[in-house]
Amino acid sequence: MGFDQPSLKGRALRLLAGREHSRAELERKLKPHETEPGELARALDELQAKGFIDEQRVVASVLHRRASRLGASRVKHELQAKGVSAEAVATAVADLQGSEFERAREIWRRKFGEPAADAAGQARQMRFLAARGFGGDVIRRVVGGRDAD
Question: What cellular component GO annotations does this protein have (predicted)?
Fold first, then answer.
């Protein structure tokens, strides 16, 4: 390996300096740079043992960055795509669902501010919230102007 090529561990640390990454994300991004079988796994094992790779921090980071703008469904898919364990995803989504209506209402209020004048406008508002991962019941309550049950 030449001096101009950073080690796998160096590349992983550079990625982790930017934001939290799950082990699966790092494997996906660094696999093309692996020169011998098992080298990447050893580097990631070492980083994980030292606490540089932490699934709970990945979950917390995604929730912090995305929960204010996305529904539980979209956050769930994002966590799954990052390779977060099913248990951690389920816990995070359960926590988000408690505030789903309030978050959807705040996003709707910032974007639209008032109920739609007609059915086409209402459909557009509903599609906007659906694209952000909010569930149908929550969307109907927000766009229909009904408060939390």
Answer: cytoplasm
pLDDT in tens, 78-100: 999 999 999 999 999 999 999 99
Distances (CA, A) of 30 to 7, 13, 15, 18, 42: 10, 11, 10, 15, 13
Q: Is the pLDDT of residue 1 over 60?
A: no
In CATH, what number does 1-53 get? 1.10.10.10
Q: Which residues contact 2 (CB under 8 A, 6 or more apart)?
A: none
Q: Which CATH architecture has domain 54-98?
A: Orthogonal Bundle (1.10)
Q: Which two tokens stand for residue 86?
A: 């099913």
CA 85 to chain centre: 13
